Amino acid sequence: MPPLSLKGRALRLLSGREYSRAELEKRLQSYEEEPGSLALALDDLQSKGFISEQRVLESVVHRRASKLGASRIRQELHSKGLAPEAVAQAVDQLRATELERAKEVWRKKFAEPALDPAGRAKQMRFLAARGFGGDTIRRVVAGDDD
């Protein structure tokens, strides 16, 4: 069986999940035999709609929003090499629902408010590790419902 072409390898990766162009370049760089052939293959796939930065953005937001805060999702989107303007816009939309999402993550893990400062600190660290903002964390742990 002959080895897969760069385009074939890219399509195999894309069949599993959405990848940004930068991610595909990083993963397929070691298979490039002629300089510039990877860029040509990715250009072709992008022109045919197989690579879409918008779909990658939507996919990450959809998969991760129920578990993570806006800052953690922003970090993940930046690591995928997406356009900073698109990332900023997605993060702004996420911030609108940050409090509700944080409450749900907190409720799944803890269910009831901590009775002592050590317990509150543990709950705050838990939410902070998931990328929720400080103000949101304080409101959730304090039990503010307004």
Automatic annotation (TrEMBL):
Cited InterPro entries: RecX_HTH_2nd, RecX_HTH_3rd, Regulatory_RecX, WH-like_DNA-bd_sf
Protein task: Modulates RecA activity.
Pfam families: RecX_HTH2, RecX_HTH3
Similarity annotation: Belongs to the RecX family.
Domain of life, per lineage: Bacteria
Alphabetized HAMAP family for the sequence: RecX (MF_01114)
Keywords, ordered alphabetically: Cytoplasm
Domain (RecX second three-helical) ranges: 52-90
GO cellular component: cytoplasm
Tagged with keyword Signal: no
Compartments, as annotated in UniProt: Cytoplasm
A GO BP annotation: regulation of DNA repair
Keyword Protein biosynthesis in record: no
Main location: cytoplasm
Protein name listed in UniProt: Regulatory protein RecX
Domain (RecX third three-helical): residue spans on this chain: 98-141
